[in-house]
Amino acid sequence: MKKNFGRLTFRTLALLMIPTALAFTACKDDDDDKPTPAPTFANMMVTHASPDAPGVDLLVDNVKLNNAALNFPTSTPYISLATGNRNIKINVAGTSTTVINATLPLEANKNYSVFAIDSVASIDALVIEDNLTSPAAGKAHIRFIHLSPDAPAVDVAVDGGAVVFGDYSYEEYSAFTPLDAGSYDLEVRVAGTATVALDLDPITLQAGKIYTVFAKGFLGGTGAQALGAQIIVNK
Question: How many angstroms separate the first and last alpha carbons of the chain?
Answer without folding.
Answer: 20
